[in-house]
Amino acid sequence: MRRGPRTTAATLARWSGYGLAALPLAFAPVSVRLRVPRRWLRSPVRLERPGPLRVLAHSVLSGGSGLVGWFLALLALVALTRGLAYPVLTDDYANSWGGPTLAGAWAVHAVLGVALLPVWLLAIAGLGAVQWRLAQRLLGRTGPPWAIPLSIALAAAGALLFIAWTRQL
C-alpha cells in the first residue's frame, strides 16, 4: 500500500492525539486504556490480566508522559502565537532575527512559528508511540522492555525542561 501525504498527515495526527490523550487515559479504567489505541491507532493492546501494581505503574508513567506531551503542545502554541503576533508582542526589532525592520522580523518569526509545527507534532507523536509501547508492556506484557525506563527518562527530561522554561520567564 502506498502512503501519500494525506495518509502520513492523518497518521501523525492520530499518534499526536494519542500522545496528548495519555494524561486523561492515566486515570481511566483499564478497558478504556485498551480501547483507545485499538480505535485511534488501529493497533490493539492485548490484555494479559495486569495486576494492581502494573496498572498503578502504567497510571504514573502514562501521566508523566501525558504531562510532557501537553507541555510540548503549550510550547508549540506559544511559539506559533509569538511568531504570528510578533509585532504586537515586542517593540525592539533592531536586534531581532530578521531585523532591523518590522517586516523582516515579523516574516522570520512567523515562518519559524509555522514551520516548527510539524516538529512539535512529531515530538508529541513520538511520546504517543512510547505511550503505546508502555501500555503493551505493562497492561499486555508483550511490549518491549525499554518502554519503562524510556518513559521514566522522558518524564524526568520533561520536568527538567519545564523547570528551565519557568526560570527563564
Describe this structure in words.
With 169 residues, the protein is mostly helical. It has one domain (5-77, 118-167). It has helices at 5-25, 30-41, 52-84, 86-89, 102-115, 117-140, 147-167. α3 (52-84) packs parallel to α7 (147-167). The longest helix is centred in the middle third of the chain and has 33 residues, at 52-84.
Secondary structure: elements and pairs:
Elements: H1 5-25, H2 30-41, H3 52-84, H4 86-89, H5 102-115, H6 117-140, H7 147-167
Transmembrane segments: 15-34, 55-80, 106-134, 146-165
Keywords: Membrane, Transmembrane, Transmembrane helix
CA radius of gyration is 19 Å
The sequence of SSEs as H and E is HHHHHHH
Going by helix content, strand content and strand pairing, the class is: mainly alpha
Global shape? elongated
Helical proportion, percent range: over 70%
pLDDT < 50 runs, ≥5 residues? none
